[in-house]
Amino acid sequence: MSTSKQLRTAHVLVWTAGVVGILHAAASLYWAVGGQWLAATAGQWALDLSVEAPVATKVALGFIALLKFLAAIIPLAVAYGRLSGARFWRSISWVGGILLIAYGGLNTILGAVVLAGLITPDGGYDRAALMGHALLWNPLFFIWGAALILSLWFSRHDRRRSRV
Question: Which of 38, 39, 104, 162 could cysteine-pair with 142, CB 3.0–4.6 Å?
Fold first, then answer.
């Protein structure tokens, strides 16, 4: 694959990662400001906590949304030379991408196994939350991480980035 084609592929992938990360951040921000759509997919414990400690829950969700948003846009900024310290941020992105793949992939598989009835957890489980995690949130974490790692792989020899 030519270098220019690799760079185009890397850009498509980093945009994919960014959009998925921003979607995750948007959901957290939406819940932070009091939205309820898909809140049950986070788990009954989260719904209970939002009633028991509404201010703390909103602050925590706002902070989580900010972290997700930064994790989504920093690789984009680095890919387009808009942020200094590219080597540092790429290293952080490699670690983050691997963690997203591991967390999202493992939890998607485990959730699917439980939903399929192959494993029955002691004490039961929150079906709505497990469905949300197995079918939506964790696959999105996996896609985010996979797209990020692949974008880093395809852009590893981008000489223009090394001048940043």
Answer: 104
